Amino acid sequence: MRSGRLPARSKPTPIRQGSAPVTQRLRSAALATLPHGIPGPRFDRARARVGIVHLGLGAFHRAHQAVATEAVLEAGDLAWGIAGVSLRSPDTRDALAPQDGLYTVAVRSGEGDRFQVVGAILGQLVAPEDPEAVLALMAAPDTRIVSLTVTEKGYCHNPATGELDRAHPDIVHDLAHPHAPRSAPGFLVEALRRRREAGLPPFTVLSCDNLPANGATARRVVSAFATARDRALGAFVEREVPFPSTMVDRIVPATTDADRTLVADAIGAEDAWPVMTEPFSQWVIEDHFAQGRPDWTLGGARFVADVEPFELMKLRLLNGSHSTLAYLGYLAGHETVSQAMADEPFAALLAAMMEREIAPTLPPLPGFDLAAYRAELLGRFRNPALRHRTWQIAMDGSQKVPQRLLGTIRDRLAAGEPFERLALGLAGWIRYAGGRDERGGAIDVRDPLRDRLQALSEAAGDDPARLADAFLSVREVFGDDLGREPRLREALTAALGRLLAVGARTAVAEHA
Ligand code: CS2
Fold this sequence. Notes:
globular, binds D-mannonic acid, 21 helices, 512 residues, three-stranded mixed beta sheet, alpha/beta
């Protein structure tokens, strides 16, 4: 990494206890001995420069945008190396720094596995350890894009309205300490301010999170934060900074120790944090950049004038079904997505929900075969080689449900059409968020609103109408309109009634 290089800290990472005698660690020196058929980076990493600072160095970024960027670097455009920033935990840096930033992407399906060692991530930074280093890199002249995968909650917004949540603890902190921020909006605004002061053009902010109109959402929160700091800065962000929207799609389950063993055996070296994914990958990007952009078409991406129809389709069909399967599947005792899909009523519920309740709400995409897309989605969920835990997808429901299920329900209500399957998915979330599974065991619910939702659930007990009313009162999720919508209340009460009376599996079978 040329600019903003950080000292590589290497905390020993316990890796695997397999029996195969793999002793070397994945690193630059190990690339020469990768087994035949396992490609490593085909570009000179020492000559590559950081042109992209990425906030949120999780598995998804490493299996998606970084892989597309690898293709750009391999084609000889060395200006687009990535510096990855973790906004919270040092874990990824601790795993990757001793590996010179190298890691393996394992592409898995019923037909077999493919492995690739990726070198696009030239440096790793941990924001809480050194926010100044992150800001310096974001404000460096070579940095032309700051991309984000910070998850829904990283936008510090109200999920129902998409507006910046001024009471969010990180926003309160960052307004009080704007030069040492914690949040993504705080980092973006301070770096943009520095660039403006230095007479440098702004970078493009490229949201790669699963939010509706993710570019517009990023623009709204970043502009609001900038305006709260200084009106002129807010006007500058509004006027000068491009926020293209993107649709991102690749299923990337959390890596397990078994995955580490599989990868070590395949590549003949220990990789502390490989990423596991599926063959499918899609990236649709609005072509609106301040200072040029990589030719990501080399990595399979597509540039379009308007991403919104793609994004809506993906959020509603894929993520809406995924969340439905996650909540109802978890409640029925299914650990992974593919296990739930192998339980026929679940697959049938999703197929019917997609076809009858979601697809009719989508704007037409000329030339796009929506039926084939739906069928492909069901096939992807069935992928037997991926262990994608329902629990993982169930996380952060209060942040996900609005764009995954509620937008669709809003459209169905407006059209006067039924939506009982969507209501069942929503009821699954409510039942799950209560924190007790169907056998009375505790669920490890991860959600920023967890305590409040559990308190609501306990107060309502097993009365479906009270439970529906309690959750519908959560304005950040349902907004003012849906919270007061009698037809939603009725459908939700009915769905919760079935879930509580007969359990998730039978309730699913009733709607399949
Ligand atoms: C999943 C997504 O964890 C989740 O909430 O629904 O991460 C999903 O796997 C991706 O959006 C697929 O592109």
